[in-house]
Amino acid sequence: MAAKLVRKCLVLPGLLLLLVVPAFSFPLNRRKSLNEIKEINHKGPYLGLVTVYPPEEKAFLDTGIFKPHKTHRFVDLSGRRFWVGKIHEKKVIYVRCGVGMVNAAAATQQMLDLFDIKGIVHFGIAGNLNDSLSIGDVSIPKQIAHTGLWEWLNPKGKLDPNYVAHLDVASYNVPKGKGSNLLGRIGYSKEEFFSELGKPNAARPLVWAQMSQHWLHLAHNLKKIELEGCVNSSLCLPRKPKLVVGLRGSTANIFVDNAAYRNFLVRTFQASSVDMESSAVVMTSLSNGFPVIVIRGLSDLAGGQPGENAIGIFGSLAALNAAKVVAQFIKALPHDTS
Ligand SMILES: *[C@@H]1O[C@H](CO)[C@@H](O)[C@H](O)[C@H]1NC(C)=O
Ligand SMILES: *[C@@H]1O[C@H](CO)[C@@H](O)[C@H](O)[C@H]1NC(C)=O
């Protein structure tokens, strides 16, 4: 009996704690952040910057272009930190979203829902699929597809004509071996694109998400940018890096370091770069009716190289070159327009 009583007494405060603590502490933090955002928005609108992971953020900060706001430096939400400041006298908010399409879409949607935003500039590094381009070059694609919306098919089933493409794994037999395998084939589905400009609650199928034309035009007209060609005093690229505007990019939750799959992406989608976030940021921005541009420095050959993937050696150089283009692009943006 006594033991029961003791247990009751122990359980009760425990229950209270469970009920009280989460109910108050979490919303308080969030409420504080939302109040800060209200104040930050009084001084908007801002350009929204989305980058992905720490090396890209470091390269961006190392350029010194970002001047943090003196009082409202940052606000934390859902575990992400949104920094407030200026680049070339233009107000910006930037966030490091984290790797993959879920993080990219979630952070972009938060940026657009909560802050007074004019448009999204997304930047980072990417794998190079195009043999006419080199590591260190920066690509601003005109369109980008999600090439990871797969259906892994029954090898005996029919191929749905609605697929954008398919990959026959069963007959992939290089070098020649003993015939087909049971992995069968993969069908590439279209995205379901919801848009403020379309009918509510009705998605339309989408393969290529188009970059905003006026921003792409601005990117085409950027003056020659001095891009970095050397990792250090003893390691330089064989060619001077350049900016290329208007190609195609491909995104999936897949890191590609495989020559055969790289070739498939080139042949099937005519894509020049491959990454894990761009299409999510672009699709989310377009759904909400905001202009968007992608700026990605090429860090490696996505498996097209003879030896080790070069991301470890040239990743920081590619990130730096992307940040340099971001700076030039923001400089070239008119002050009042989005
Ligand atoms: C330059 O970078 C390469 C690749 O990271 C490294 O192997 C080499 O030691 C570096 N050289 C100097 C002089 O720092
Ligand atoms: C590869 O890049 C070159 C140089 O920018 C371009 O002319 C070519 O169209 C690109 N290839 C594809 C498949 O887009």
From TrEMBL:
GO BP: any one term: nucleoside metabolic process
Top-level lineage group: Eukaryota
A Gene Ontology molecular function term of the record: catalytic activity
Signal peptide range in chain numbering: 1-25
Keyword Metal-binding belongs to the record: no
Alphabetic keyword roster: Signal
Domain Nucleoside phosphorylase, residue spans: 48-331
InterPro entries: Nucleoside_phosphorylase_d, Nucleoside_phosphorylase_sf
SUPFAM superfamilies: Purine and uridine phosphorylases
Keyword Transcription listed: no
PANTHER family, sorted: PHOSPHORYLASE SUPERFAMILY PROTEIN, PURINE NUCLEOSIDE PHOSPHORYLASE
Protein name according to UniProt: Nucleoside phosphorylase domain-containing protein
Biological source species: Carpinus fangiana
